[in-house]
């Protein structure tokens, strides 16, 4: 059986429709809910509606939204209507009550108007008074504000006025303090006021003004301080002289400077100047000035320095100020150390020079002790070292130009006092003491030059004759002045005669004066007795050997001295030589050194006086011979004289008389000198006589002339035989005439045979006759004979024999000469 085919069941469109309807319903509900939400936002939003409206227009449901909006409006209208219906009766009642209140309000308003009018009328005076009170309150408030502002501003203005006053009175440091208070304390209180800014802008300028003004005062101080440095230095050196037991007059200047006590410096912190005291204080100041008790602070107002230092310290420029101050003071030190070109002309110039330098360092020492760091010891030492080198160079140059010993002595005293003064302030003065040792030699040279004039003056004023005294006082004066002791002279009666002339005690006194002058320079040099003694002995040796020795040498060489004066000079040298031991004792007594010290230098005066005496003796010999030559020059022989005059020539007689009187003055000369002088004179006479015979200008000599010559020689031999000087042995002086005596005897005795036979023998009678002298005299004698003979005389046998004999003798004598020459 065929299967029954079940027909397909048609789809359930009802269910599908229901589903679609449900979806449509859900969508509609969603749209409605969305629209409700938007309407709620529109209703409740207090802000802009742009977002909500944009959401409405962006969709496709605008119409539906309008429908929903209409529905909401209708619902709200129904709700309003319902509520109005619910509250209508109450509303009516309220209206009725309101009408009643309106009547009461109108009545009340009228009453209030009446009251107001009455009140306005009654309060009008009160309002007027009130307005006046408000105005007064406003004025009072303004006054209080003005008083408050003035209370703040007045101290500022007062401080500014005080600042200006301090600036005008040059109280710069207090002004700076006032400026600091004004800037940091007072101006901050008035910052709201316009003038505070002006003052703030003026403060840096005021500081610069204070700095410039204080620096200007400092410059004035530095310029004026040089006017007071000399006075300060003079006072400091005077005090140092009193402390070191020196004469204060060394430091005092003859040119008194008018000094005035400086005003008391203002207090550096308050700027106040203390008032001067009473009249008594003025009198006390005057007395202190007269006594030289003023100090650096009394003479100089140092407040500009202190003020400027404090100001620059407060302003932070202390280092700049210290640099400037030291630089300026260095310049002033160089100016003080620059000596005047004519300083060597007056001791006052030296005093002024030293006063300036001492005053400079006293001021600097005062600055060192009264300030902290403005100057320090290192700066002072550096400045001092520079000053010492320049000072020493200046003193060397100026002292080298000094020509007077007294001025050199004053300079030395000033240097010593200068050293004492600055040593008291802590400065080292060793280099200056060494300079004094250098100046000591220069001082000795100046003394030496002065003593040259002294010695020459003594020599010029001396009469070169022994000293005669006629009283005990005169005798005592001489022996006190010169150490001379002679018992025989003491026993003699007055008048007495000293062996030496006046220049012996004068020279001795001046040498002692020189020693004392040298000792003066050694004072206050802190040298030992031995050093002083050695220095004086060296200087005295130079005086004796160089100065006095040179003066004596020049004296002895003077051409105007007579023979007797030279003899007296030689005698004087003998006594001055003996006085040297007394000079050594004198030096030891004044220096305090031991006279028997091994290392002590001895005076060289003994050897110098010996040399001078020897020089004088040589000049005595020379002068004596010169005088003899003067007598010899008076000789006028007639060499053709036929026979002698029977007596000695006049010049010989005068010469012998001169020699006798001269040798009588030799009694005080050493015996050796007298004997030497006598022997020298005799030899010179003998030589001069021999020269007469041997003179080449004399061509002819007659026997008569030889006989006259023989008489003159006899006169001289007689003088020699009398021993005019004690101590000469018999026959000693005759030996001086032996040569000419044998020559004359040979011719007068005509002993040619003996002469020729004994020639060369030690026992020869005519051993001193030289063949050449004999030839010369014989030829002159032969020439005379040849001139006298004539034609008839040539025929005489005797004349021919004599002529032949002379020729023979001449031939033999020439043979002897040639033989001697050949030997």
Structure description:
The protein has 823 residues and is mainly alpha-helical. Helices cover 73% and strands 0% of the residues. Mean pLDDT is 79; it is low at 1-5, 256-292 and 791-795. Component of the exocyst complex involved in the docking of exocytic vesicles with fusion sites on the plasma membrane. It comes from Magallana gigas. InterPro entries: EXOC6/Sec15, EXOC6/Sec15_C, EXOC6/Sec15_C_dom1, EXOC6_Sec15_N, EXOC6PINT-1/Sec15/Tip20_C_dom2. This is Exocyst complex component.
Notable features of this structure?
two-stranded antiparallel ribbon; rod-shaped; coiled coil; 823 residues; exocytosis; 27 helices; mainly alpha; 73% helix; transport; EXOC6PINT-1/Sec15/Tip20_C_dom2
| Mean pLDDT value | 79
Based on CA atoms alone, the radius of gyration comes out at: 71 Å
Q: Tell me the structural class.
A: mainly alpha
Number of helices: 27
How far apart are the termini?
Answer: 225 Å
Strand numbers in spatial order across the main sheet: 1-2
Number of strands: 2
- Morphology: rod-shaped
Domain Exocyst complex component EXOC6/Sec15 N-terminal: 69-237
Keywords: Coiled coil, Exocytosis, Transport
Function: Component of the exocyst complex involved in the docking of exocytic vesicles with fusion sites on the plasma membrane.
InterPro entries: EXOC6/Sec15, EXOC6/Sec15_C, EXOC6/Sec15_C_dom1, EXOC6_Sec15_N, EXOC6PINT-1/Sec15/Tip20_C_dom2
């Amino acid at each position: 059986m065929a299967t029954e085919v079940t027909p397909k069941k048609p789809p359930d469109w009802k269910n599908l429709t229901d589903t679609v309807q449900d979806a449509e319903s859900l969508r509609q509900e969603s749209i409605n809910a969305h629209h409700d939400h938007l309407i709620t936002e529109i209703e409740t939003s207090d802000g802009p509606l742009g977002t909500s409206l944009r959401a409405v227009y962006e969709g496709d449901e605008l119409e539906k939204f309008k429908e929903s909006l209409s529905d909401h409006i209708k619902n709200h209208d129904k709700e309003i209507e319902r509520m109005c219906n619910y509250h209508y009766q109450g509303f009516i009642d309220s209206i009725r009550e309101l009408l009643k209140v309106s009547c009461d309000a109108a009545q009340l308003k009228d009453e209030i108007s009446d009251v107001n009018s009455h009140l306005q009328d009654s309060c009008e005076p009160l309002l007027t008074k009130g307005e006046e009170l408000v105005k007064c309150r406003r004025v009072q408030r303004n006054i209080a504000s003005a008083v408050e502002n003035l209370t703040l501003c007045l101290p500022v203005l007062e401080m500014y006025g005080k600042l200006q006053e301090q600036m005008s009175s040059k109280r710069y440091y207090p002004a700076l303090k006032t400026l600091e208070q004004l800037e940091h304390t007072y101006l901050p209180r008035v910052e709201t006021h316009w003038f505070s800014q002006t003052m703030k802008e003026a403060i840096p300028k005021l500081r610069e003004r204070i700095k410039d003004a204080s620096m200007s005062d400092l410059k004035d101080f530095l310029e004026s301080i040089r006017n007071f440095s000399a006075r300060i230095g003079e006072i400091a050196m005077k005090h140092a002289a009193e402390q070191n037991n020196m004469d204060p007059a060394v430091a005092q200047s003859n040119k008194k400077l008018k000094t005035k006590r400086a005003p008391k410096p203002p207090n550096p912190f308050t700027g106040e100047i203390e008032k001067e005291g009473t009249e008594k204080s003025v009198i006390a100041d005057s007395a202190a000035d007269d006594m030289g008790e003023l100090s650096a602070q009394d003479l100089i107002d140092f407040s500009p320095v202190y003020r400027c230092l404090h100001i620059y310290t407060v302003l932070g420029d202390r280092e700049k100020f210290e640099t400037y101050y030291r630089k300026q003071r260095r310049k002033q030190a160089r100016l003080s150390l620059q000596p005047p070109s004519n300083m060597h002309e007056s001791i006052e110039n030296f005093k002024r020079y030293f006063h300036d330098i001492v005053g400079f360092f006293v001021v600097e020492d005062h600055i060192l002790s009264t300030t902290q760091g403005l100057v320090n010891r290192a700066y002072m030492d550096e400045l001092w070292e520079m000053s010492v080198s320049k000072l020493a160079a200046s003193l060397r140059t100026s002292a080298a130009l000094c020509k007077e010993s007294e001025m050199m002595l004053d300079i030395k005293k000033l240097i010593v006092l200068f050293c004492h003064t600055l040593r008291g302030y802590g400065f080292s003065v060793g280099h200056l003491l060494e300079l004094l040792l250098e100046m000591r030699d220069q001082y000795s040279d100046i003394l030496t030059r002065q003593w040259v004039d002294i010695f020459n003056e003594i020599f010029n004023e001396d009469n070169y004759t022994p000293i005669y005294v006629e009283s005990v006082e005169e005798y005592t004066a001489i022996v006190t002045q010169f150490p001379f002791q002679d018992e025989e002279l003491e026993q003699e009666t007055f008048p007495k005669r000293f062996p030496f002339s006046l220049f012996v005690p004068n020279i001795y006194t001046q040498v002692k004066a020189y020693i004392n002058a040298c000792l003066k320079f050694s004072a206050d040099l802190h040298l030992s007795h031995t050093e002083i003694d050695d220095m004086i002995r060296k200087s005295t040796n130079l005086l004796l050997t160089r100065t006095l020795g040179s003066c004596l040498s020049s004296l002895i060489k003077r051409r105007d001295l007579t023979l007797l004066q030279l003899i007296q000079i030689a005698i004087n040298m003998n006594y001055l030589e003996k006085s040297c031991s007394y000079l050594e004792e004198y030096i030891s007594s004044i220096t305090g050194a031991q006279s028997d010290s091994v290392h002590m230098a001895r005076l060289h005066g003994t050897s110098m006086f010996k040399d001078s005496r020897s020089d004088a003796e040589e000049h005595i010999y020379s002068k004596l011979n010169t005088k003899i030559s003067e007598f010899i020059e008076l000789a006028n022989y007639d060499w053709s004289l036929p026979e002698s005059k029977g007596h000695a020539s006049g010049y010989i007689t005068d010469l012998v008389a001169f020699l006798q009187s001269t040798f009588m003055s030799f009694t005080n000369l050493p015996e050796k000198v007298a004997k030497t002088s006598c022997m020298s004179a005799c030899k010179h006479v003998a030589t001069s006589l021999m020269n007469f015979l041997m003179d080449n200008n004399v061509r002819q000599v007659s026997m008569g002339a030889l006989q006259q010559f023989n008489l003159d020689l006899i006169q001289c031999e007689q003088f020699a035989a009398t021993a005019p000087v004690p101590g000469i042995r018999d026959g000693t002086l005759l030996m001086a005439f032996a040569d000419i005596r044998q020559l004359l005897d040979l011719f007068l005795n005509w002993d040619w045979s003996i002469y020729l036979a004994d020639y060369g023998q030690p026992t020869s009678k005519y051993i001193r006759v030289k063949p050449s002298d004999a030839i010369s005299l014989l030829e002159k004698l032969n020439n005379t004979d040849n001139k006298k003979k004539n034609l008839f005389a040539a025929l005489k046998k005797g004349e021919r024999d004599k002529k032949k004999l002379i020729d023979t003798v001449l031939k033999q004598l020439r043979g002897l000469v040639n033989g001697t020459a050949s030997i």
